[in-house]
C-alpha cells in the first residue's frame, strides 16, 4: 500500500473508532476499543491488501470481529471469577439481584486491574484461554510448572481476600 492509501485507511480507522466507542463504551473500556481498532488497522497495513473493493466494510468487519471476541473473553472471565469467588466463600449466599451481581463483577475487574501484570496474565491464560500450567510456564518464561501453578492460585487467593475485604466494608 502506498502512503495515500495508508492515510485514507487511517482516516477510515479513526471514523470507525468513534462509531465503535459509541457502540461499545458501556461494555468495554475505551482503551481496549482503541487498541482493537488500531490492531486491525495495522494488520491490514501489514497484509498490504490492495484488491479489496470495500476497504471500509472490510476493516469494519475485522474490528467488529475483534471486539466481539474480546467481549466473549470478558464475559467468560467475569463468569469464572464470579463463580470461583463464590465457591471460595461458603458464607456468601447466592446472589439473586442483577444489580448486586453487576456491582460485584465490577469490583472483581477493578481488583484484577490492580494486580501485577504477571498475575493478571496468569489468570487470563489459565481462565480465558484455558491453557495448561506447562504451556503457561513456557509462555511466561517461568522455569517450573509448579511455580506457575502456585502463583496462579496465590493470585486467586489474593483476589478473593481483597474482594471479601471490599464486600464487608
The rounded distance between the terminal residues' Cα atoms is 57 Å
- β-sheet strand percentage: under 5%
Q: What is the SS-derived class?
A: mainly alpha
Low-confidence stretches: none
The oligomeric state of the chains shown is single chain
What is the name of the CATH class of the largest domain? Mainly Alpha
**Helix count?**
7
Mean pLDDT: 78
Number of E-type strands: 0
CATH homologous superfamily heading of the largest domain: Winged helix-like DNA-binding domain superfamily/Winged helix DNA-binding domain
The CATH architecture of the largest domain is Orthogonal Bundle
Characterize the structure shown.
The chain is mostly helical. The chain has 2 domains: 3-72, no CATH class; 95-168, Winged helix-like DNA-binding domain superfamily/Winged helix DNA-binding domain (Arc Repressor Mutant, subunit A), CATH 1.10.10.10. The chain is 79% helix and 0% strand. Helix 1 (3-24) crosses helix 3 (55-88) and helix 5 crosses helix 7 (145-168).
